[in-house]
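Comment thread on ticket #2218

A.B. wrote:
> Attaching the input chain for the structure job we discussed in standup.
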Amino acid sequence: MEQKTQPIIRRKSKPKPQRKYFQSDGIRLSYLDFHPEPVEVAKPILLVLHGHFGNARMFSRLGDWHVIGLDQRGHGWSEHVAAHEYSREKYVTDVATFIRKELGTHPVVVLGHSLGGVNAYQLAAWHPELVRALIVEDIGAVVKDDLSFANWLPERASRVSELKRSLLRLGLQGFDYFAESVCEDEDGWYFRFDTKGMAPSQERLNGDWWHDWLASDCPALLIHGEKSRILGREHADEMAGRRPNTKVVHMADCGHEVHDADPDGFYMKVRAFLEEIG
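C.D. wrote:
> Ran it. Output below, let me know if you need it in another format.
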């Protein structure tokens, strides 16, 4: 009796992210396209904006959608700028320019964490035609924080362990969050973000932004970490209660970086929201 051999199933490997560049306000900015190859059924674009110290890879796990991550000014492979150029207007202009230049002006879903979250909802307020929906991770309509410790981070180190110790000396335990931005060149190991630009960037992020939060009415999901030092539960509930088409989810046992503390739970909440808006 002749035995039938099972056909070999060749699975198409996931395409590698493609790094690209564009110009905004006279500076060179970088982004990663996590699905650069054309697909039979077009996937909706999910534009992700990292927080301070982050980069375009922060949300690379959200691979069910056409994820595009922007290295915002002073972060990742994008250029650093003078302290006064880390303004609200400059950050938001970069994102608006990116969508218009690189994405064909079609409205996209924008997910932002911390700094990226404010940039996202201010983009929706100032350029509503570019934003289909918002996902804001753990940042409020009123922001107050201090990143002056970044001024004490070393420019270079001979080992990664030295960078880690520098964070520990400043009382920072979460090295994994910063590790995404650690690189090496011929002069040693270093952080890709602008260490001297983080404090002035945060100073310009601080403020009362209720007007901008309430200025748009596209569908929005606010993800709050129950243990966050940045966003309190009462403030998160008020944000959802005052803005139309907005829902809030409270993630137990999570701090400010919900996507790191509970990646599976974060993914499920994002997925449910995107399915809900179609």
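A.B. wrote:
> Thanks. Noting for the ticket: DSSP finds nine helices and twelve strands in the chain.
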